Structures are given as C-alpha cells and as structure tokens.
C-alpha cells in the first residue's frame, strides 16, 4: 500500500499515541511495558492509526497528558515522525472538528498511513512501531 504523507509535517516532530493500560502491562518490576498492541489496527481504524502531533499540541497550548480523555486510564507513548516515515508509513493531519467526547488536543489529531492489508504484515508493522516508541519525558 502506498502511504499518503503530508510533507509539511516536519521529520523532527513527534507523534503521540494514546495507549490503553491493557496495551502496557507491567513488567516484573511493576513498570509499564509498551506492547505492540498499542500500534495494531482495528476495523474501526480504517487502515489509519490515530495520533497527535506534538508541535500542534504545543501550539494549542497543551501537553501530551492533555491528549488523554478526562478520567480515562490511558497514557501516551511517543514516536519520531522520521522513524514512522523510515518504515514507509506516512503522516497526515486529520483534525477532529466534532466528536462525541471533545478533547483539547482534537485540532492536533493526525493519522499514520500506509499499513498493509494482511494480518501478518500489520502485526509486523505494529512491532516495528513499538520498537522505537517511548514514554514522553515532558
């Protein structure tokens, strides 16, 4: 699949991905361990993985933790946009203009594109994204 990409999004930007607690089970030390499940597509994703762009979150102004819905148990993982593109994915702005549960970060919403259609390949792609994902430092 050819990845749609918005070249105006800088390679040095960061992508924030919401992570459900089940996608970050604690390791033996009790520290959450990010699972590739956080980067797997569901049918509802329509082949595009939801993210927020750090530069646009900061311009709101907001922080990565503001991108988690009020009262939700989620956390945030981050990835370099350049790494996403190096995996042959694209990044597109996809601001949310109306939603059932509005979020302050909705204008900074974007998507990762270019996912394969086979389960085996999408699992491989999820593992590759997880490989460089990390918890935000700020």
Structure notes:
This protein is of the alpha+beta class and 138 residues long. It has one domain. The chain is 19% helix and 19% strand. It contains three helices and five strands; from the N terminus they run E-E-H-E-H-E-E-H. The chain has helices at residues 54-59, 81-86, 119-132, and strands spanning 14-19, 49-53, 75-80, 90-93, 109-113. It is globular and about 35 Å long. The termini are far apart. The model has no long low-confidence stretch (mean pLDDT 91).
On the 0 to 100 scale, the average pLDDT is 91
Number of helices: 3
Order of helices and strands: EEHEHEEH
Counted beta strands: 5
Which structural class do you get from the secondary structure elements?
alpha+beta
Query: Could you tell me the strand content as a percent range?
Result: 15-25%
Give a short overview.
By secondary structure, the protein is α+β, with helices and mostly antiparallel strands.
Task: Label this structure with key terms.
138 residues; alpha+beta; 5-stranded antiparallel β-sheet; 3 helices
Strand-helix topology:
Blueprint (H helix, E strand, L loop, with lengths): L13 E6 L29 E5 H6 L15 E6 H6 L3 E4 L15 E5 L5 H14 L6
Antiparallel strand pairs: 1-2, 1-3, 2-5, 4-5
